[in-house]
């Protein structure tokens, strides 16, 4: 039996594992940042999946090492932004990417996704 996988399959498996891990963390409260043990804020979960997908599309050869939810900003006019920092590894370099996901509050609809690499 040949157990070798293509890079595409391995990347898909890695991304699927990460998404499953994020879902479990959100459901069990492991994603707590504010120290409130009684109520996990999972309102950003949908937007984190979009941030990860868009980053993977822009950096298809990079492996996702870690991610962090920075926070939500209310922009007014029914718009909000969720900000994330993703840490990637590609070839011999590791780098961070800030991802800002803008969306409509009332419609729960994606407006835009912006990315910028961290200087280090």
From TrEMBL:
Signal peptide: 1-39
Keyword annotations from UniProtKB, A to Z: Signal
Segments crossing the lipid bilayer: none
PROSITE patterns the record matches: PROKAR_LIPOPROTEIN
InterPro entries linked: DUF3889 (IPR024987)
Domain of life of the source: Bacteria
Keyword Coiled coil in annotation: no
Protein name per the record: DUF3889 domain-containing protein
Lineage of the organism: Bacteria, Bacillati, Bacillota, Bacilli, Bacillales
